[in-house]
Amino acid sequence: MFITKFHIVIITVLTCSVAAGSRILGLFATYSKSHMLLHCTVAEQLARVGHDVTVIGIIENVYPNAAYKYIHLQLPDGGIIDDKALKSLINTRHSFVKSLFVTTAEYLRMANETLWQPKMREFLNENRANAFDLLLFAYVMNDFQMGLAAHFQCPIVVLWVVRPALQINGFVGNPLEMAYVPNISSHLQQPLVFLQRVKNCITTWLEFALMAYLDYRTQQLYE
């Protein structure tokens, strides 16, 4: 049977599968430029392979010529904790525990102001269920913002830039194993001697207290 080039083209077109790009939203409500560089790199790579990617951030776009669309939310004066302000906050004469709780409270305030920002409210009103196929979520003590995945009725991928913390382990189901796995707050390295294991357990309990405080403050924001 004689097959022309035209027939080959038709057969090729009919047998090729067609892949459509997904609509992806990245919520990167973090003050840290170094964190944004990592998060936006993920968004950029997805955009380059054909996905329709929109990124929402609270600082200027770290990749001005990126393939994704960028929405900059301008928070009220003092709404953003920059590196200098955070360092000053931590170095203020507080105990370590108090500094940890004060810093967490500031992160929560910043996350709450992000959701109440007028441009963000308008965006949520215009984009509802099924507007996006995936939510890329930068976690920074902002658990309640995960509710955006329910708003859009889409899966969520949590982005975290350092080794797992207690809250992240809870999200993905990692076992605690505090007797021999150093947590993020202890600054220890394996293998652990006895006193280091004691320190690791104490800092893990402090993380539990911090998570309880985080849940309490989050509930206040809901109410």
Task: Please provide a written account of the structure.
- The model has no long low-confidence stretch (mean pLDDT 83).
- The protein has helices at 5-15, 33-48, 83-91, 96-116, 118-126, 147-152, 166-172, 194-222, and strands spanning 23-28, 52-57, 69-72, 134-138, 156-159.
- It is globular and about 70 Å long.
- Helix 3 (83-91) runs antiparallel to helix 4 (96-116) and helix 4 (96-116) runs parallel beside helix 8.
- It starts with a helix and ends with a helix.
- With 223 residues, the chain is α/β, with parallel strands linked by helices.
- It has 2 domains: 20-161, Glycogen Phosphorylase B (Rossmann fold, 3-Layer(aba) Sandwich), CATH 3.40.50; 173-217, no CATH class.
Name some characteristics of this structure:
8 helices, 5-stranded parallel β-sheet, alpha/beta, Rossmann fold
Condensed summary:
This protein is α/β, with parallel strands linked by helices. It has 8 helices and 5 strands; from the N terminus they run αβαββαααβαβαα. It is globular.
Topology at a glance:
Elements: H1 5-15, E1 23-28, H2 33-48, E2 52-57, E3 69-72, H3 83-91, H4 96-116, H5 118-126, E4 134-138, H6 147-152, E5 156-159, H7 166-172, H8 194-222
Parallel strand pairs: 1-2, 1-4, 2-3, 4-5
